[in-house]
Amino acid sequence: MKLEKVLDAYTRRLARAFLDFWLLSLIAQKPRWGYEVISELRARFGFSMGVSSVYSVLYFLEDEGYITGEWESLNGRQRRIYKISANGIKALQVGKSSFVNILKKFGEG
To answer: What pTM, to 2 d.p., does this model score?
Structure first.
C-alpha cells in the first residue's frame, strides 16, 4: 500500500474517531449551523463526513448539554445555530488533554 493511501486512511479514522471533539472545537470558535460544520470539516480533512454522522453527533452533544441549539431564520430559511456551553468548553479541554496524552504514548514505545 502506498504511503499516501495509508496516511489518508489514518486521517479518516482519526477524524471520525474524534468527531465529537472536532465539532466542539469548531463550535467553540463561533456559533455554527450543521451544513457550515460539514463544509468546514471537508475543508480541513479533505473528505466529506456523512451528514447523518455529523448530525447524530450534534444531537448527542446537545442532549448531553455540551452545545445548545436555537432555530434562526435567514432569508426565509430555518437553520439551527449551535453554540458551545460551559460544559462543552470543559469537555473540549478534557478531550484535547486526552488526545495529547495519547500522542505522548507514541513516543514511549
So the answer is: 0.86
